[in-house]
Prior knowledge:
Elements: H1 20-41, H2 45-49, H3 52-61, E1 68-71, H4 78-86, H5 121-135, E2 141-146, H6 153-165, E3 169-175, H7 186-196, H8 198-213, H9 219-235, H10 239-243, E4 247-253, H11 257-269, E5 273-279, H12 287-291, H13 318-332, E6 336-340, H14 350-355, E7 360-362, H15 367-379, E8 383-389, H16 390-393, H17 397-405, E9 412-418, H18 433-438, E10 444-446, H19 451-463, E11 468-473, E12 495-498, E13 503-507, H20 512-524, E14 529-533, E15 536-538, H21 542-552, E16 554-562, H22 567-577, E17 584-590, H23 600-606, H24 611-622
Parallel strand pairs: 1-2, 2-3, 3-5, 4-5, 6-7, 6-8, 8-9, 9-11, 10-11, 13-14, 13-16, 16-17
Antiparallel strand pairs: 10-15, 12-14
Bound molecules: thiamine diphosphate, 1-deoxy-D-xylulose-5-phosphate and magnesium ion.
Cofactor: Mg(2+); thiamine diphosphate
Binding site for thiamine diphosphate: 75, 116-118, 148-149, 176, 286, 367
Pathway: Metabolic intermediate biosynthesis; 1-deoxy-D-xylulose 5-phosphate biosynthesis; 1-deoxy-D-xylulose 5-phosphate from D-glyceraldehyde 3-phosphate and pyruvate: step 1/1
Amino acid sequence: xxxxxxxxxxxxxxxxxxxxxxLQELAKEIxxxxxxxxxxxxxxxxxxxxxxELTLGxxxxxxxxVDKIVWDVGHQSYSHKIITGRRDEFDTLRQFGGISGFPRxxxxxxxxxxxxxxxxxxxxxxxxxxxxxxxGEDHSVVAVIxxxxxxxGMAFEALNHAGHxxxxxxxxxxxxxxxxxxNVGAMSGYLTRMRTDPMYSKGKEELEQLMRKVPIGSTLLRxxxxxxxxxxxxxxxxxxxxxxxxxxxxxxxxxxxxxVVNVLQRAKATKGPVLVHALTKKGKGYRPAxxxxxxxxxxxxxxxxxxxxxxxxxxxxYTDIFGRTMIKLxxxxxxxxxxxxxxxxxxxxxxxxxxxxxxxFDVGIAEQHAVTMSAALAAGGxxxxxxxxxxxxxxxxDQILHDVSLQNKPVTFAVDRSGVVGEDGATHHGLFDFAYxxxxxxxxxxxxxxxxxxxxxxxxxxxxxGPAAVRYPRGAGCGARLDDDYMVLPLGKSEVLRKxxxxxxxxxxxxxxxxxxxxxxxxxxGIEATVINARFVKPLDEECIIHYAGRTGxxxxxxxxxxxxGFGSAVLELxxxxxxRDVRVQCIGIPDTFVEHGTPALLKARYGLSAEQVVRxxxxxKAGRNRTRRLAVVSDSN
Length: 638
Ligand SMILES: Cc1ncc(C[n+]2csc(CCOP(=O)(O)OP(=O)(O)O)c2C)c(N)n1
Ligand SMILES: CC(=O)[C@@H](O)[C@H](O)COP(=O)(O)O
Ligand SMILES: [Mg+2]
C-alpha cells in the first residue's frame, strides 16, 4: 500500500493542516503500517489499532513536545511513535537497538514520560502540570489512560489529588471495554452504563436545556437549582469524575476524528482538570484483532493476511506447567485459592478459573490489593497462590512485607516472567525479585531448574506454613520430563548434580542447565566442576555451599538477576559471616544497569549469561587472567 500521506508526516506539525478526510486516509495508512510491522516484530497490536484516530486528534489539537502527552502503560502509543519522527525506524520496533515498545524520553522529546507499568499517567501528568505552573510556563498536559489502567489504585490517588489542586490538565479515558481481556469491577460497570444507557448519554444535555428554559428568578428555577445536584446523580454521565473535581466531557466516539478534535479543543480551553471519555474498539480496523482482541493484545509474529499466529513447536511454558499444577494442587487441597491482577491468561490461570470459579480472583490491575487481600485470605484459613509477574510484583513490596511476611501468613507468590523477558524491555524484565524478596524476614525463595521442578516447588510452597515465593521465567520450559505427581522438597536443600574438584558452579533457576552445559565443556578442557542446583535463595543450603566451595577453592555463582543484593550476594554474605576467606568467589549475573529490549538469548549473551561465557570466565579465573572482565563480574574476592 502506498503511504502517500504518511510519507509527508515527519513531525506532528505536518498533520495539523490536514483535512478530516486526509486524516481519515492517514489513519488507514497508519493501520496498514502497524499491522505489517507487528506481524514481523510482535507487539501490542490491538491496543495501538484502537488508538489511531485519538492519536491523530491529540496531535492535531496539541503542540507536542511543548504540550506534554503522557501515555498510560504506553502499549497503545505506536501511532504516536510513527507520527513523531519514528516512522522510518518503526520496523525496528522492540528489536535490540531499535525503538522501544513503550514511550521513552531518551528515544524522543515527544515521549514526555517513560512508562510500561500501568496506572501511572495521571500522577505523571499532574506532576508535569505542577512543574509547569511553578515555572510560570503555559502549555497543556494530557494523560491518556485505558479503562483497564483505570482499575489501578494509583489512578484514583492521582484523580483525587488533581481534583483537589484544580490544575489545568486533561485526562483522556480510552474506554474500549477491555483490559487485556475482560475488565474487572465497578468502574468498568459504571463506564459501560455510560456507554449504553441512553438516559446517561442524553441526560446532561437535557438537564442543561431545562435549566436554560426556566425563567430567571422564578420559584421553579430556585427549585431546580436546589435539586440540580440530586438530579445530576440520576442523569448526568461522568458524575463520579465531576465529584472528584474534573469536568467530564463525553462519551464521544473515539474513532470519529472530527468529534475527537472538537472535544479536545473544548478540553484545551477549559480551566481546571478535564476528563474526556472516548469510546473505542480494541483492534479497530483489523478483523482478526477486532474479533480476538485479547489474543492480539500483545502478540508474536503472525501472518498479516490471515491473522494466523505463527506457531513454534516449543516445549510447554513454565506458565503452562504452573497452571496445570495449580489445578492438581486445588484438586487435592480445598484451601487453595488463586489470585491474579488482570493477567489470568498471562499467568496460566484460565483453566483454573474455569474449573474453580469460586476459588479464583482476578482483582484488576491492582497488585497491592491482590497481596493484602491474599494475606487476609490466609488469615481466614485459606492458602492463596498469588500469580503476578516479577516486574509488577515490585509494586506490592510493602504489602508483601507488612501484610504477609510480618504476620507470617501462608501465601505463595508465583513470580512469573522472572529474569530477562525479551522484547518488552527494561520496564518488564524481572531482574529484581531475589533482591526485594530476600530482604524480607520469614520469606522462603525458590527458583526451579526446569518445569518439572517448578511443580515440586509449588507443592513445597503451598505446604509451607508461611510466605514462600517461586520465581520462574517467561516462555518455553526445557522440555523436561514431568513427574506424574508433585512432591514436597526439603526446605533449604540444594541438589548436587555433578562432582568435580577444580571449581564449583553454584547456579539458581534458569541458570542451572547452563552450568551443567558449561561443566561438560570445561571437562573437555581438563577442568572438573562441581555443579550445584541451589534451588533455594532463602534459606540457603549453607553446609552444602561451604563444603563444596571449600573443597574446590573456586566458587562461581550464576543467576539471571541483578548482582546487587541477589543470589550471589547472599552467598558472599554467608561466606563472610562464617569467616571463610580462602575461597575465590566470582558472581555472574546482570550488572548494575537497566537491561534494554531484544531477544532473551541476545540479552543474556550480552551480559555474560551463556555456557560459553561461563566456561571462559572459569578458564580465565583458573589462569588468573579474569580481572579485565567487566560485564559479568562484580565480586572477585581473591
Ligand atoms: C502494574 C501493571 N500490571 C499489569 C500490567 C499488564 N498490562 C498491560 S496492559 C494491561 C491492560 C490495560 O488495559 P487498558 O488500560 O484498558 O488498555 P487497553 O489494552 O485496553 O488499550 C495490563 C493488565 C502492567 N503493564 N502494569
Ligand atoms: C503491556 C504489558 O504490560 C503486557 O501486555 C505485557 O507486555 C505482557 O507480557 P507477556 O507477553 O509476557 O504476557
Ligand atoms: Mg481497555
